[in-house]
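Look over what follows to help learners.
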Amino acid sequence: QVQLVEAGGGLVQAGGSLRLSCAASGRTVSTYAMGWFRQGPGKEREFVAAISWNTGYTYYADSVKGRFTISRDNAKNTVYLQMNSLKPEDTAVYYCAASPNNNFAFPRNSLHWGQGTQVTVSS
């Protein structure tokens, strides 16, 4: 079993930056794709960004491309999400997810989830 713990959320003004982290423990995540999702008020959970654990390949939602950067530190079993030029519409609970077998489709029924961290962007 994989345990994921997010940190780094908070309140920031529009145009500001935040860096989220996701620490993985338990079973090794060396064969897992890692991703970030978010769920805004009254909205469904949506994909934000993903990174292959072994090759570093990254993929982003169009809404965050050019503003957010996903990265990982294999030695620390940690994934990061650097968020720049934040907008009020980025306000959401951000969740870290681990997808077995490096599956970039992130099938919801097989993902491991963290508890989420709140990001609030004020205008």
